[in-house]
Automatic annotation (TrEMBL):
Signal sequence range: 1-21
Domain of life the protein comes from: Bacteria
Keywords: Cell outer membrane, Membrane, Signal, Transmembrane, Transmembrane beta strand
Cell compartment(s), UniProt: Cell outer membrane
InterPro entries: OMPP1/FadL/TodX
Family: Belongs to the OmpP1/FadL family.
Membrane topology per record: Multi-pass membrane protein
Native source organism of the sequence: Pseudomonas indica
Protein's recorded name: Long-chain fatty acid transport protein
GO CC, any one term: cell outer membrane
UniProt GO MF annotations: long-chain fatty acid transporting porin activity
Length: 423
């Protein structure tokens, strides 16, 4: 019987009101993010851009593609994110179930939230020996909140909220090596912030609180390659290494002084932004039509490699409230495909774009079906693998272009508007 269940039973027996069992830090169960490349053009082509990489966003997507830019470019992109986050809303005892022999009926819901802002800025400068770019990229901008309310003893009612962001500032350079080979590299400074809190009413007027909060920074780097297999077919490859960033975990309660939270646990935890490895092909069918295919391996397992309990101090048994290995993520493979058709005959050339890509499930969920563990209940909501459908269009003037892109999936929509000026 775990520590939180013992506490729950003690509270049930000692309190005249109803009580519910305590659980792990629930806000983590709602985190959503992906690693799509910046740019409205790339977004509308399913994010398949590793081999194409022929605009200012190559500074992040694949620095080897920068050498295709022959004029100075300044670009800006704004994005609007719409999230629908699944979570555990309620639970009850199914037929034959009771507090000591649980058989739960789970009810899930979704929490809607959104975020918006300037997601990408860049400046590209071509020189005779190399092309250099500077950029700012907002890789993560997520927030959500949700509440759990139940009349059963399995979990105490709680309210959770979380905000997560990562902004990187980087510089990249691309080189021409011989007739067909292009190489690139970049370095980026990441600024990370997390602010998560869960509060729960444990009965008798008492309140407990768990929080994950902090800011940290660190360096990451990108290596890129682009090889011209023919005049129309190109191969690309990229490896992106991101830093491990740290924050504080605090658990507190007001058992001794009602209304005043007293911390009983403080420790450090980390958020290891997953590395990404990708390869791609880009084929120009003719002057108007281009097709691109990317396959990316995202090392999501890095996020949970050192997972620990928000209810256990350093050195204590981190699995006392459930087997944390059941929450560990697995690496995932993204498959992205997109195309672009340009109507050159129009007074202002118009580009139509569309794409599709597979997003492997990477929300934290408990893999074991044993619902006796609190974590198995809180982390029972799942998104499954998602299929994203994308589309967009662009207008290309002589010295600037404007692009719009949209990405739709069941739980995560993105809208993008970008502009590029060339001199």
């Amino acid at each position: 019987m775990n520590n939180r269940l013992r506490l729950a039973i003690a509270l049930v027996l000692s309190s005249s009101g109803s009580a519910h069992a305590i659980t792990d830090e629930e806000g983590t169960s709602g985190i959503q993010f992906n690693f799509s490349n910046p740019g409205a053009r790339s977004l509308s082509m399913g994010g398949a851009f590793v081999a194409l990489a022929d605009d200012a966003t190559a500074a992040y997507a694949n620095p080897a593609g920068l050498v295709q830019l022959t004029r100075r470019e300044f670009s800006a992109e704004g994005r609007y994110y719409r999230y629908s986050t699944p979570y555990l809303r309620d639970l009850s005892f199914a037929d034959g179930g009771n507090f000591f022999e649980p058989n739960y009926q789970l009810s899930h819901d979704t929490s809607d939230s959104s975020a918006r802002g300037v997601s990408f800025l860049s400046a590209v400068f071509p020189f005779e020996a190399a092309t250099v770019a500077f950029y700012r990229h907002e890789q993560m901008d997520f927030n959500t909140r949700f509440d759990f309310i139940s009349d059963d003893f399995a979990l105490f009612p709680f309210s959770s909220r979380i905000k997560l962001s990562d902004v990187s500032y980087g510089t990249s350079v691309g080189f021409v090596i011989g007739e067909r080979l292009r190489l690139g590299a970049g370095i980026a400074w990441h600024e990370f912030e997390i602010d998560s809190a869960t509060t729960r009413d444990v009965g008798g007027g008492a309140v407990t609180r768990q929080s994950q909060k902090g800011k940290d920074h660190g360096f990451g780097y990108t290596l890129g390659l682009r090889y011209l297999l023919s005049d129309r077919l190109a191969f690309g490859a990229v490896y992106r290494r991101s830093p491990r960033l740290y924050y504080d975990v605090v658990a507190s309660d007001d058992f001794e002084t009602p209304g005043q939270q007293v911390a009983w646990l403080r420790k450090r935890s980390d958020f290891d932004i997953p590395d990404v490895m990708g390869v791609g092909l880009s084929y120009r069918v003719n002057d108007a039509l281009t097709l691109s295919l990317d396959v990316n391996r995202v090392l999501y397992s890095q996020l949970t490699h050192n997972i620990s309990s928000a209810f256990a101090a350093e050195g204590d048994d981190q699995n006392s409230d459930g087997d944390l290995s059941q929450l560990k993520l697995r690496d995932g493979t993204e498959i992205r495909f997109g195309g672009e058709y340009v109507f050159f005959e129009l007074p202002v050339p118009v580009s139509l774009r569309a794409g599709v890509w597979r997003d492997p499930e990477h929300t934290l969920h408990y893999r074991d079906k044993n619902l006796e563990d609190a974590n198995a209940l809180v982390f029972s909501a799942r998104t499954g693998d998602q299929t994203h459908y994308t589309f967009g269009l662009g207008l290309a003037f002589e010295q600037f272009s404007v692009d719009f892109g949209a990405d739709f999936s069941k739980y995560y929509d993105t809208f993008s508007l970008a502009a590029v000026a060339r001199f």
